[in-house]
Automatic annotation (TrEMBL):
<dbReference type="Pfam" id="PF17137">
    <property type="entry name" value="DUF5110"/>
</dbReference>
<dbReference type="GO" id="GO:0005975">
    <property type="term" value="P:carbohydrate metabolic process"/>
</dbReference>
<keyword id="KW-0326">Glycosidase</keyword>
<dbReference type="Pfam" id="PF13802">
    <property type="entry name" value="Gal_mutarotas_2"/>
</dbReference>
<feature type="domain" description="Glycosyl hydrolase family 31 C-terminal">
    <location>
        <begin position="565"/>
        <end position="632"/>
    </location>
</feature>
<feature type="domain" description="Glycoside hydrolase family 31 N-terminal">
    <location>
        <begin position="82"/>
        <end position="154"/>
    </location>
</feature>
<dbReference type="InterPro" id="IPR025887">
    <property type="entry name" value="Glyco_hydro_31_N_dom"/>
</dbReference>
<keyword id="KW-0732">Signal</keyword>
<dbReference type="InterPro" id="IPR000322">
    <property type="entry name" value="Glyco_hydro_31_TIM"/>
</dbReference>
<dbReference type="GO" id="GO:0004553">
    <property type="term" value="F:hydrolase activity, hydrolyzing O-glycosyl compounds"/>
</dbReference>
<feature type="signal peptide">
    <location>
        <begin position="1"/>
        <end position="26"/>
    </location>
</feature>
<dbReference type="GO" id="GO:0030246">
    <property type="term" value="F:carbohydrate binding"/>
</dbReference>
<dbReference type="Pfam" id="PF01055">
    <property type="entry name" value="Glyco_hydro_31_2nd"/>
</dbReference>
<feature type="domain" description="DUF5110">
    <location>
        <begin position="649"/>
        <end position="692"/>
    </location>
</feature>
<dbReference type="InterPro" id="IPR011013">
    <property type="entry name" value="Gal_mutarotase_sf_dom"/>
</dbReference>
<dbReference type="Pfam" id="PF21365">
    <property type="entry name" value="Glyco_hydro_31_3rd"/>
</dbReference>
<comment type="similarity">
    <text>Belongs to the glycosyl hydrolase 31 family.</text>
</comment>
């Protein structure tokens, strides 16, 4: 028989569980509050390097305090751990019907209850098994809490799949021979984890709903990144061996044809050697790199350089960095150990001289994810003494942090791409990408990124048909980074002439939405709200939302559907825009509308209220819907992101028939001066006059750095 002894820590009742079957002793967590709504427990001995430590997280306490205090989640009161065979086992209770989200960047499913994963930084292989680009060990419950394991280990997670023999909620034994309802996956009442180390750190984030949990996580990690304005424009990555003249010619083509462009990406051929890398310019393709970058800047276009960190014998730092590299190579290049100060210094000096001081604006950090046969093996050794497993888990995160620091020292914001990340990364200015290319799964990844504290781009690279090309370009224009990646085949936005105008239209719409997108990212930074959101982060998508469910008149209950079916093919952009992409071969689709009234973005016509609708939108536009009270600030269509001194008129669209308010964020768009208070939040307000007519108002800030002049209100509802 089992024995339980109860202890009390403050107002929280906890217990020790000692099994009479000879298993190791299980103990309760000792939770300590570390911020409003955030608790931490240290289990066993320190495991050394951790993701939050590498990211050097600095909680945004002001934002956390605005969310207010909240009680420790009661459902976790009986959580226990044990130390066995040099490993740490963790067990967290689950309730019947509880949904789970998170556990890294996933491409197949948003809901994760019942899954088994080994969280391992890797090149995604088409399976949601935990081997992914950002295996963030955070799971979020629909009950309003999240659990983060701050470990740089390969963590195995049984997310409600294991059944304890003597558990208090053990399911009954069944007979498959006679019982047709026999279940191959019996009910499990816990999340269980194996951390292959003698200790770990565990964090709990609480909230009134899943959105507030993610806000607390993002804010605890410093608040989400606020990109420079140019980062939210459109980017085009040029073919690998393009010269400076070819790139400038392509930039001129974009302008001549009327397609927007804010920054260009240079692929491996910009270097004199790549795979492994010299990190210096190729003198034949780029004889005068500073002059080339200045020519781009004159056109208000920034540059982004492809790199991976592995150093070639042809690099000027090779001999000096050699003592600070690992025992194994990657593409015969030496692997620097950035946990050593000399390695960090050598890279900083070289990159500053070759890139930053002459105008490079950011990096695309490739090959820091996998596969296993590409990166170092787990038997590799590094000068710092950090194990190869932990190095694998934090390497991409570490490079993000290091390069972010370089730009911060120049008071210059950057926005780049990366293939590997982990916990603690919300504040880092990088968007994840990969070589996988499934359009549907890319949308799922947009949804799951909001539960991992990372950003993801469903970049467009190539297509078999013009229909597919347009659908992909429509999707990417509603993502954190609107990117065409032509490194391999030179694809252009106008490659398919029969949809070239429709592609141009959605690219220009992206530019028009810059004020809305910039404000959405400001919410990410100051409030912790993910800019791209899974529907499960919207009010109403909760299994216990009985009040709403009882009020529905539709034949299909969208909130019940959110429990039974994974809603993974639609997502929110900010507070107001619901995006429902179509895929090649589709002419219609269903859209699940959350609570409240919703309107067509393009026409303002009402489309439904708290229901599932069927739409047949045609090919030319991606379906976008706006919720009641939606206030969407827009600028005129422009080819380049507005400059620091440029001021433009605003058009503010309003959807619905009720009074509403929203705020518009602005700053200089390129520096970190907003941390010193150089920013504006402008109230946009819609009220009814004495005649019952809707009227809009605002008070323009007197700040000379405010980038908008006049405002015109467009009431979209017929």
């Amino acid at each position: 028989m089992s024995k339980f002894s109860f202890l009390t820590i403050g107002s929280l009742a906890v217990f020790l569980f000692i099994s009479g079957s000879g298993f190791a002793q299980q103990a309760v967590f000792q939770w300590q509050p570390v911020a409003p709504g955030v608790w931490k427990s240290v289990v066993g001995s320190s495991d050394g390097i951790t993701p939050l430590g590498v990211a050097e997280v600095k909680p945004r306490l002001e934002g956390l305090q605005k969310l207010g205090d909240i009680s420790f989640p009661a459902v976790l009161a009986e959580s226990v751990y044990e130390k066995t065979d040099g490993k740490t086992y963790l067990r967290f209770p689950l309730q019947q019907g509880e949904q789970l989200f998170g556990l890294g960047l996933n491409f197949k499913t948003v809901q994760q209850r019942g899954t088994i994963k080994t969280l391992h930084v890797d090149h995604y292989n088409g399976k949601d098994n935990g081997r992914t680009h950002a295996p963030v060990p955070l799971y979020v419950s629909s009950l309003g809490y999240g659990v983060l394991i701050n470990s740089a280990r390969y963590i195995t997670v049984y997310a409600g799949s294991g059944v304890l023999a003597e558990g208090k909620n053990a399911p009954p034994e069944m007979n498959r021979n006679t019982q047709r309802n026999w279940n191959p996956q019996p009910y499990s009442d816990a999340v269980e984890m194996v951390v292959p180390a003698a200790g770990t750190e565990v964090y709990v984030f609480a909230g009134r709903n899943a959105m507030e949990v993610m806000q607390r996580y993002n804010l605890y990690c410093g608040g989400g990144t606020l990109p420079p304005k140019w980062g939210l424009g459109f980017t085009h990555r040029t073919p690998t061996l393009f010269t400076d003249e070819q790139i400038l010619k392509e930039v001129a083509e974009f302008e001549a044809k009327g397609y927007p462009l804010s920054f260009v990406g240079l692929e491996p051929g910009w270097q004199s050697h790549s795979y492994p890398n010299s990190f210096v310019w190729d003198s034949t393709r780029f004889p005068q790199p500073a002059r080339f970058l200045a020519q781009l800047a004159q056109k208000n276009i920034r540059s982004n350089l492809w790199i991976n960190p592995y150093v070639s014998s042809h690099s000027p730092i090779f001999k000096d960095v050699l003592p600070y590299t690992g025992s194994h190579t990657v593409w015969v290049g030496r692997v620097p150990d950035f946990n050593t100060a000399p390695a960090r210094r050598l890279y900083k000096e070289l990159f500053a001289k070759q890139h930053l001081t002459i105008g490079v604006s950011g990096y695309k950090v490739d090959e820091v994810d996998g596969y296993d046969h590409w990166l170092w093996p787990d038997v590799a050794k590094f000068p710092s003494g950090i194990g190869a497993e932990q190095m694998r888990q934090i390497y991409g995160l570490q490079f993000q942090k290091m390069t972010d620091n370089w730009f911060r020292e120049q008071n210059q914001r950057t926005y780049g791409l990366v293939r590997g990340s982990n916990a603690g990364s919300p504040a880092l200015p990088y968007v994840i990408y990969n070589d996988y290319y499934d359009h549907r799964d890319f949308i799922t990844a947009l949804c799951t990124s909001s539960f991992a504290g990372v950003l993801w781009t469903p970049e467009a690279r190539s297509s078999k048909t013009s229909e597919e090309w347009l659908r992909r370009m429509q999707t990417v224009c509603f993502s954190p980074m609107a990117m065409l990646n032509a490194w391999a085949d030179g694809t252009k936005p106008w490659t398919f002439p029969d949809v070239a105008e429709e592609v141009k239209a959605v690219m220009l719409l992206r530019m028009q939405l810059l004020p809305y997108l910039y404000t959405t990212f400001a919410q990410y930074h100051f409030e912790g709200k993910p800019p791209i959101r899974a529907m499960n982060l919207v009010d109403g998508f909760s299994f216990d939302d009985k009040a709403t469910a009882g009020q529905l008149n539709s034949t299909e209950n969208p909130y019940a559907m959110a429990v039974k079916k994974d809603i993974k093919d639609q997502f929110m952009v900010g507070d107001y825009l619901l995006v429902a992409p179509l895929f090649a071969g589709e002419t219609s689709r269903k859209v699940v509308l959350p609570r409240g009234k919703w309107y067509d973005f393009y026409t303002g016509k009402p489309v439904g209220e708290s229901e599932v609708i069927e739409i047949t939108p045609g090919l030319s536009k991606i379906p976008v819907f706006v919720k009641e009270g939606g206030i969407i600030p827009m600028i005129p269509p422009v080819l380049h992101t507005p400059t620091e001194t440029e001021k433009l008129p605003l058009t503010v669209r309003f959807y619905g028939k009720t009074e509403a308010t929203a705020t518009l964020y602005d700053d200089d768009g390129k520096t970190f001066d907003y941390d010193r208070g150089k920013l504006t939040w402008t109230k946009l307000e819609v009220k009814k006059n004495k005649k019952g007519e809707l009227t809009g108002s605002w008070t323009a800030p007197k700040d000379p750095g405010f980038h908008y002049t006049t405002i015109s209100w467009q009431f979209m509802t017929p």
